[in-house]
Amino acid sequence: MKKFFSICFLLFFLSMNSQSQNYQKTNHGVKLKIDSIEVEIQFYNPYTVRILKSLYGKPFDKNSLSVTTNPQNINFTINEKNNELRLKSNHIQIYINLTNGIISFWDEVLPIFQPRVMQI
């Protein structure tokens, strides 16, 4: 009987670990795949992030003439809840809808930018 419970516990543990995350934490932010689009969010400082989007499997290689600095190692947290991923630094929060890829930006309390979704 003890062996049976041990096997059940092991199978439960393995099934919990085998569930894939929708995102991968990187040194400067996160990478995630939404449908056929790969999204990378990079922190440049606690106030500034860069969003890179490309077709899955085709990495973004273009160097920007307007971005003249490199991503920094910023302390941030990641929370996933209700099909939404939240990245939070000391001064900005980024919410990514994991279903449709809509990204919104907040300061500590108020929205900085929220895209409007048109209903057809």
Q: Helix- and strand-based class?
A: mainly beta
Q: Structurally, how many domains make up the residues?
A: 1
The CATH topology is Immunoglobulin-like
Low-confidence stretches: 8-20
The percent of residues in helical segments reads 10-25%
> Shape from CA axes?
globular
Quote the average pLDDT: 78
Give a verbal description of the structure.
The protein has 120 residues and is mostly beta strands. It has one domain (21-113): glycosyl hydrolase (family 31) (Immunoglobulin-like), CATH 2.60.40.1760. Helices cover 14% and strands 40% of the residues. The protein is built from one helix and nine strands; from the N terminus they run H-E-E-E-E-E-E-E-E-E. It has one helix at residues 2-18, and strands spanning 23-25, 29-34, 37-45, 48-55, 77-81, 84-88, 93-97, 103-106, 111-113. The strands form two sheets. Strands 5-6-7-8-9 form a five-stranded antiparallel β-sheet, with no helix packed on it. The chain has a four-stranded antiparallel β-sheet with strand order 1-2-3-4, with no helix packed on it. It is globular. Residues 8-20 have low confidence and may be disordered.
SSE arrangement:
Elements: H1 2-18, E1 23-25, E2 29-34, E3 37-45, E4 48-55, E5 77-81, E6 84-88, E7 93-97, E8 103-106, E9 111-113
Antiparallel strand pairs: 1-2, 2-3, 3-4, 5-6, 6-7, 7-8, 8-9
In short:
This protein is mostly beta strands.
Structural features:
120 residues, Immunoglobulin-like, 4-stranded antiparallel beta sheet, 40% strand
